[in-house]
């Protein structure tokens, strides 16, 4: 079995200010020390990327943009290009987050274009997929995951797959306090890995990390991480407070 190093990422969304952002990564940096058993990243608001990047320099903590434009440059007011993220030293970008899809109407096709542009600028992509409560109750979880993942990876060459991380985030579990049970999450993660295997072969799929996102907390991270196909967590609200995020970075181990 391929060993996949756990990956814990904090998506700060539209939260924190400059001082609290820098203070938080300083505490993360101190807590993590020189540990190499887990990969850790944060996704700050764009205006703080440069400062957070400087604050994590020389540490194992990486940082990324919460989104990028599907266009290279030009008259796209309010947008941030993949080249700009790369220019401030971002190694990562988060794409297809449910809030981008459901609040801002991003389509599978738009997400797919963004993935291509991001990879073209040397960024690693955390690609988010997941179903709403209506879709889950309608028995469409696998259909939605298949559609979103297949579209998101359309055009991604096999050689670029090591730069892709998949994040399964059931929309009904984000910020609601409802967490998918380990069984529910494991089923979805196994299905997604099977899809990746069908697209790229088992060798490639076995190396892809699939994160779970949706109300991850210190008291449920250990049981989620115990599920074979769950390789880490994409953490929202709990990533904003050191007292919650540091134990999650420890993966619930004591």
SSE diagram, text form:
Blueprint: E1 7-11, H1 18-32, E2 39-43, H2 49-56, E3 62-65, H3 82-87, E4 92-95, H4 98-102, H5 108-120, E5 124-129, H6 133-137, H7 141-153, E6 164-168, H8 182-200, H9 202-205, E7 210-213, H10 221-225, E8 232-235, H11 242-249
Parallel strand pairs: 1-2, 1-8, 2-3, 3-4, 4-5, 5-6, 6-7, 7-8
Can you offer a commentary on this structure?
The chain is α/β, with parallel strands linked by helices and 254 residues long. The protein has a single domain, classed as TIM Barrel, CATH 3.20.20. Helix content is 40%, strand content 15%. It contains 11 helices and 8 strands. The chain has helices spanning 18-32, 49-56, 82-87, 98-102, 108-120, 133-137, 141-153, 182-200, 202-205, 221-225, 242-249; strands at 7-11, 39-43, 62-65, 92-95, 124-129, 164-168, 210-213, 232-235. An 8-stranded parallel barrel has the order 1-2-3-4-5-6-7-8, surrounded by 5 helices.
Short description:
The chain is α/β, with parallel strands linked by helices. It is 40% helix and 15% strand. The protein has a single domain (7-35, 45-235), classed as TIM Barrel.
